[in-house]
Specification:
Length: 314
């Protein structure tokens, strides 16, 4: 590594700090730690845009080889705003030193998939020009941060709830001896804890907004005291991803997405006309991701010939 000038001939400050709420991060590859690198030039010197763009984070392997975080450690220049920082105790973030008009900072957002309990020391580097590259592991501006990877949290089934709304029931004139009878049940699925929420839900079988259970029934009787020979039913059960488009309007009552929740809908209609007999039941399998980046597999299923919807955590 070329070092034709001393770093303190160019800079008066070069350091990196944890600037999120903790040095801990769930090792799920989603939650992030914020790391801020601060530089300030000496009087008569400058840190230009190219120098700021050259700032990188580094680690060292067991053989003291310099590596950039990659693979199990991932660095982004932008924060993913869907996920909260780790909020529990850990290494306290360092207060940033007072800045001046000459102070420049660059922020990085690091995520991990390392085994729980892993401790990783991170250093920073900056390049003044082709011949001058400086790092915080040596020299007058030695600094580093330690990142602790935490085993991802798995939520028990009891952590979730399915909040069924009041049933919508109505009749529709069909010109037959009896009106069609319709029942609609809509529920919102999410965390019991109001401080947690679903930020992403990923389907693994039937896509969002498509029925995973469809049943058609038709029963024809030859003799009926009510003079009705055909008894038919339609039942459809549909699951909606968090944030997915959903605009359900039954008899003037409207259901729209609820932030941080998935939604389910059970539609059942009984009518008195010739129809058909068929059933199609697929799996409704999902991975839901919480605001800390932790995930849990969920399956929705039906009971009572599709009239009741339930869930289980796998």
């Amino acid at each position: 590594m070329s070092n034709t000038i001393k770093v303190n001939q160019w800079l008066s400050r070069l350091r990196l700090d944890i600037t999120s709420s903790s040095n801990r991060v769930f090792a799920n590859g989603r939650q992030q730690v914020e790391i801020t690198v601060t530089v300030e030039p000496r009087d008569g010197e400058e840190v230009d845009e190219n120098a700021i763009a050259s700032i990188e984070l580094f680690i060292f392997d067991d053989n003291a080889n310099e590596l950039q975080p990659d693979g199990e450690l991932h660095v982004d220049s932008e924060r993913d705003p869907r996920f909260e920082y780790y909020a529990a105790s850990g290494g306290a973030p360092s207060p940033l030193m007072n800045s001046s008009q000459r102070t420049a900072r660059r922020r990085f957002y690091l995520s991990s998939t390392l085994p729980g309990g892993s401790l990783t020391t991170i250093y920073a580097g900056i390049r003044k020009d082709t011949d001058n590259h400086f790092m915080t592991n040596t020299g007058p501006f030695q600094s580093s941060v330690v990142i602790e990877s935490i085993t991802p949290l798995r939520h028990p089934e009891a952590a979730f709830k399915l909040d069924m709304q009041e049933r919508v029931s109505f009749r529709t004139a069909t010109g037959k001896m009896r009106d069609a009878e319709t029942n609609c049940d809509v529920g919102y699925f999410g965390f019991r804890d109001p401080n947690n929420s679903i930020v992403e839900s990923i389907p693994h079988a039937v896509p969002s907004g498509e029925p995973f259970y469809t049943r058609n029934n038709w029963d024809h009787v030859i003799f009926s005291f009510e003079l009705i020979n055909d008894y038919s039913q339609i039942c459809q059960v549909t699951t909606y991803a968090e944030g997915a488009p959903m605009d359900i309007n039954y008899n003037g009552r409207r259901f729209t997405p609820r932030a941080g929740n998935m939604a389910v809908c059970v539609y059942h209609q009984r009518f008195y006309d010739a129809w058909s007999n068929s059933i199609n039941e697929d799996k409704s399998l999902w991975t839901v991701v919480d605001r800390h980046g932790n995930e849990q597999d969920i399956e929705f299923f039906t009971e009572d010939s599709g009239r009741i919807i339930k869930f289980r955590a796998n």
